[in-house]
Specification:
Layout lengths: L4 H33 L3 E2 L7 H15 L5 E4 L12 E10 L4 E8 L7 E3 L12 E4 H6 L10 E12 L13 H12 L4 E7 L4 H11 L7 E4 L39 H7 L2 E5 L5 H13 L3 E8 L7 H11 L3 E6 L7 H13 L3 E3 L6 E2 L2 E9 L2 E9 L11 E8 L2 H15 L11 E3 L3 H17 L5 E6 L5 H12 L3 E6 L16 E6 L4 E2 L2 E5 L6 E5 L5 H5 L1 E8 L2 H16 L4 E4 L5 E3 L19 H10 L1 H25 L6 H4 L3
Parallel strand pairs: 1-6, 8-9, 11-12, 12-13, 14-25, 17-22, 19-20, 20-21
Antiparallel strand pairs: 2-4, 3-4, 3-7, 5-6, 7-8, 10-17, 11-15, 15-16, 16-17, 18-25, 19-23, 21-26, 23-24, 24-25, 26-27
Helix pairs in contact: 7-8, 8-9, 11-12, 14-15, 15-16
Pfam family, one: PP_kinase
InterPro entries: PP_kinase, PP_kinase_C_1, PP_kinase_middle, PP_kinase_middle_dom_sf, PPK_C_dom2
Protein name: ATP-polyphosphate phosphotransferase
Amino acid sequence: MAWTPHQQLKHVAREVRLMVDTQIACLTDEVLPALEKKGVNLVDYDELHSHEKDLLRLYFKSSLEPILTPLAVDPGHPFPYIGNLTSSIAVVIRDPYDDAMQFAIVSVPSGLNRWKSLAFTKSDKQKRNTFVSVEQIIINNLDLLFGGMDIKSAHVFRTTRNADVARNEEEADDLLEMITDEMRELRFAPFVRLEVDCEMPLEVVHRLTVELGLSDKDDVYSICGPMALGELDSLPVKHKLNSPLVYPPWTAKTHPRLQGADIFEVIRKGDILLHHPYHSFVTSTQHFVEAAANDPKVVAIKATLYRTSNDSPIISALAKAAESGKQVAVLVELKARFDEVRNMGFAQKLEDAGCNVAYGLVGLKTHCKCIMVVRKEDERLRTYVHIGTGNYNPHTASVYTDFGLLSCDPDLGMDITDLFKYLTGYHRQVAFRKLLVAPGTMRSEFIWLIEREITNAQGGKPASIIVKCNGLDDQVMVTKLYEASRAGVKIDCIVRGICRIRPGISNVSDNIRVVSILGRFLEHHRVFRFENGGKPEYYIGSADWMTRNLTLRVEVVTPVEDESLKKELQAMLDACLCDRRKAWEMGPDGRYQLLGVGTMRSPPRKHTPQAASPNLITAVETMGLHEGLMQTVAKRCRKAKMVKLRKKCGSTVKSRRQYDTS
């Protein structure tokens, strides 16, 4: 259908309303009652006892009233500025003096704690997990803000401004200056959505839409429950250590090969595959950069930064390296959505330390995750590289699943060197030795790999493809996968987010399976496996199979060639395809069903593990992917630590099993 943008937005709005209603119903009918049984309560102000209301009034006077500003809206008071994704209260009041009806806005400051506990003293443990929202506290004490007025109605609303920017990078004289101007403009971007309390009077809704330049019919979302559900994450719940509501604590483990060893020496002995958050980011990737910064033999460090944390140790290490006289070049992507201001600050800090900083390429986002370290060894230079699937961010590395490859392979070193010549200077690379790079040849090389599987399937050879990524929407890749399915290639797509593929359609996608895994960690790594007639090839990198990644971003995917690392990748893919606890199977209609329950007790096509141990598969089937991998990695790291300890101390150290008399 050739829909106009306006028609498309109307269709989107209709579907989103259904999703919002389903989401609110799930919260109010299922989640909140279940939390109440566990002692966590979100209560309405009207349900409170009079003494609790009195205490909240005192709280309002001391902690809220001084920072709230009642804003009249009339010919002498223009409609106030309202920020993006902020909550406000629309108030209709009557002035008893002349019986006139007036309209006012009270903006809820974004820095406020959203939830107030009803435990007013530390000793009051009974109410410590009972909360009321700050909006309700404000609404029920508005008489203090509008003294002498009669409050006729007060309802919460929330606004969303357009976060998309029409860029003209080709005409920009200075990319940093352009992004700085954009950040100022975004504060005043047009409104695109208005969420309102479902009990808000229609005349108030209409007034808000007129003031905000929105349509009553298309842009208003009526919410029968709390808004800004993401802020539920900020509930200050006090849990017991063994509470079933929280995950048991997990501490990432140091990779077995990196335990107490010189990292460059270990890499020279063979490539290392890091798997976060099971392997510690701090003692691997971060340590790699910090060791390079402190090593007098290191002469140069180059890195790409897309997103990182406010207190990034990677930034500090790069700055330290530059201050010590090393050649440091960093590409900081200023166009990383919602991280523009933070990245501008990092870029300035790195420049002040003496780093050579590039801000990105015109017309492209640099999304690849690469670090190269050049070290002088035996009168020659050796290049060490880290190529990852996730950002150089220690905080997200504790909750996102990602792979990172540490290597000193000369071909990879030369490829990354050529890549940085392209990123920081003027360089055209026709082809790379091993890397697949977008927006150059990555898509065409993936297509060639799929076509090879098609040829093998038609020739009676083993043919299969496993794609693990965050999103799969590129029409070219989707069309090619359908073609491969019709040729008899077995295809498994492990796609956490948006997926254009529809599996199980007769004569189109009979051989395609689509799985999404949602659990304790955010599935974030990108892994690609091609059977290659019985000699499987594995690739990892930063690119999803989405049009934006393959055509509008600089992405890097690297082959993994070490046989032991291939087995590690295969074991992880086996585990994903055998999960019966956190995996959702997509049907031909695009809907997902949780595996292991109801009509989806077993997947349409059973996966036969190729590298994963029976213990891992059993753990994954019973506990889920993340819990199974946590258990397996912890055992391997413990075992490696004991082996090293025995080697160090000789036969005086006995194994754990020898001490376990039970």
